[in-house]
Amino acid sequence: MTNRPLLLLLGTGAALGCNFPLGKLAAAQGLNPALWAAVISGGAGLIMLVVSRLAEGPPTAAPMLRFSLVSGFISYVVPNFLTFAAIPHLGSGLVAVMFALSPVVTALLSIVLKVRPPSMLGLAGIGVGLVGAIAIIVARNSGLDGRQSAWLLLAALVPVSLGLGNVYRTRAWPRGAGPIRLAALTNLAAAGPLLTLAWALDGLDLPALLAVPGLVGLQLLASSLMFLMFFRLQQEGGPTYLSQIGYVAAAVGAGIGVGVLGESYPAGVWAGVAIVAAGIGLTTLAQLRTARA
Description:
Elements: H1 4-28, H2 33-56, H3 65-90, H4 92-99, H5 102-113, H6 120-140, H7 146-155, H8 157-172, H9 179-201, H10 206-210, H11 213-243, H12 245-259, H13 267-292
């Protein structure tokens, strides 16, 4: 029988991992990071709104407004802005690693709030994954100067925000709401604040955005594919299992950074990636045992 949560985890994480090198290319074009994040949320949200109408039918009467506003701000506005702002200073690979720390925050919140808390085996897998993520950070961070270290501290808020969002979505999921429509509305709810932030910081430089249509198209494709799987994974795997897309994204982001963007990492980074893979294996085993129980 196909392990659907694992396939969703790998697919969502791989699509998320593409965001980091694409974000680095956008930054190299001088694009406002908040505007780029707004493109992701607004564009992917509109695409998924169409898909939801085709796949899930007319909207239900579920109370989705508050869910969308809160989830959009916690899960997309804060982490996406921080991600694309930090990439020019830290590189796409290291920022991707910040997403790999979200499972720890998610697991702790799940236990404290009793929202589908992980089993002991699941916690062991998260712990192994954390060791791998720390190994990647230490190996990659050995040469950072003081200014980069400040950006690293700011980027550390990303996993905190993601963990809060992961638990909130499971706890506040509106009864009867389809995952694709929730993904669409949550992203659209995040687009407005991101556009406002972009305008306040650097203005809405639309000509610069229109000058890179191919890059915009690739980003919308990657983001739409990610979100189409993301909320389904939330439903089937729960917040802690979902959070491990950060582990997959960290490995994919580092691989693309090396293979496509010419970034280089010491051997310790790849050792960390291998440890992260072992951690995912343990949590997947825990997920299977829970499903059979």
